[in-house]
């Protein structure tokens, strides 16, 4: 049992390449930024159904975070993350499927040996930009984000040489960026997308949820409620972007009014970043859903720093002094139009 309760943690590109060369058979990679939660673990379980050997990468990539301050405040949870993965491996062994064989947790110097990781805004360094996908929707307000995502994914794929890679559907635009990266760079890799894992009240699991604290956590479901309202409208026959976006905004605006009536020490200030309707393959905003194709409706909100934080109140990992960005998406499935004449 003592031998089972161990996972090699490889910190360098050379070490992961040597490890990979010693392996036989297909290998799956589950890339993460740490702060592991059940959503990440569900991707590992999915990978275990398809391959015998799984590598989990843990790397808080600075080039996809929006500012140096965000990178510095992003918690390092490598030790607890590895413990979670060791525990998951015990479960996977009992299922007699694939198991995690290693954790790849590289340093910044290993991942960015020549280019500074903060060089994207300054136009310095070697990065991957997939236009226009990286500047749409989530990328419009965070123009460096998906450039950093595409760049680090290409680096991870080159280092690990996986046969399959696993990403969660919650970050829908990210999955499309990665698929295009694999296609355009002729990578012999299959991109597998796992379903979004949610709390009982619908909130999508995210590493950022640890920053919420109790007060903002109670309000955070407004985003998924807004998207569900749009989905319900679509299923009732609505297909116009302006109408579906208006449905989303109405849900959030009603919550803003409700919060505005509360005392400072009780309320949560919410800011709508965007809601939009997009093509499921290109993430290009569309005006109308083609019923036979469906679409994806995406949204992002900011939960602003807390006011009137009481002594002892759970304000989240940064004590409520931060703005928490939440993103989510709902796929609008193709409608059967055969009987709608």
Helices and strands, in order, run as: EHEHEHHEHHHEHEHHHEEE
Low-confidence stretches: none
- Give the % helix: 25-40%
- Number of strand segments: 9
The order of strands across the largest sheet is 1-4-3-2-5-6
Count of discrete alpha- or pi-helical segments spanning 4 or more residues: 11
Helix/strand/pairing category = alpha/beta
Largest sheet: 6 strands, parallel
Average pLDDT level: 93
Radius of gyration: 21 Å
What fraction strand? 15-25%
Q: Termini, distance in Å?
A: 65 Å
Apparent shape: globular
TL;DR?
With 341 residues, the chain is an alpha/beta fold.
Q: How would you explain this protein's 3D organization?
A:
The structure is a single chain. This protein is of the alpha/beta class and 341 residues long. Helix content is 36%, strand content 17%. It has eleven helices and nine strands. It has helices spanning 13-21, 38-48, 68-73, 78-95, 108-111, 138-141, 145-160, 172-184, 213-219, 222-235, 241-260, and strands at 9-10, 27-32, 53-58, 99-104, 164-168, 190-194, 270-278, 295-303, 324-332. Strand 5 (164-168), helix 8 and strand 6 (190-194) form a beta-alpha-beta unit. It is globular, with a radius of gyration of 21 Å. The termini are far apart.
């Amino acid at each position: 049992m003592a031998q089972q309760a161990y996972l090699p943690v490889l910190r360098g590109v050379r070490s992961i390449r040597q490890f990979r060369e010693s392996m036989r058979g297909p290998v799956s990679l589950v890339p993460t930024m740490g702060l592991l939660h059940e959503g990440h673990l569900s991707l590992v379980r999915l990978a275990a159904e398809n391959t015998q050997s799984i590598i989990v990468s843990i790397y808080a990539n600075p080039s996809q975070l929006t500012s140096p301050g965000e990178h510095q405040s992003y918690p390092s949870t490598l030790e607890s993350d590895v413990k979670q993965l060791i525990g998951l491996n015990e479960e996977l062994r009992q299922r007699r499927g694939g198991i995690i064989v290693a954790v790849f947790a590289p340093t910044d110097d290993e991942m960015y040996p020549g280019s500074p990781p903060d060089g994207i805004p300054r136009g310095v360094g070697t990065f991957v930009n997939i236009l226009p996908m990286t500047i749409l929707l989530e990328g419009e307000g965070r123009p460096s984000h998906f450039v950093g995502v595409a760049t680090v994914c290409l680096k991870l794929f080159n280092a690990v040489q996986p046969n399959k890679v696993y990403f969660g559907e919650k970050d829908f635009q990210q999955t499309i960026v990665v698929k295009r990266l694999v296609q355009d760079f002729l990578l012999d890799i299959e991109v597998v997308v796992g379903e979004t894992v949610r709390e009982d009240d619908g909130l999508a699991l995210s590493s950022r949820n640890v920053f919420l604290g109790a007060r903002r956590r109670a309000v955070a479901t407004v985003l998924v409620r807004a998207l569900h309202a749009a989905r319900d409208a679509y299923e009732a026959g609505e297909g116009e972007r302006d109408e579906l976006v208006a449905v989303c905004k109405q849900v959030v605006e009603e919550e803003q009014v409700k919060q505005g009536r509360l005392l400072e020490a009780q309320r949560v200030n919410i800011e709508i970043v965007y809601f939009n309707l997009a093509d499921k393959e290109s993430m290009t905003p569309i005006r109308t859903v083609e019923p036979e194709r469906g679409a994806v409706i995406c949204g992002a909100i900011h939960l602003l720093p807390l006011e009137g934080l009481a002594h002892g109140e759970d304000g989240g990992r940064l004590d409520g002094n931060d703005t928490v960005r939440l993103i989510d998406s709902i796929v609008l499935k193709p409608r059967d139009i055969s009987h709608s004449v």
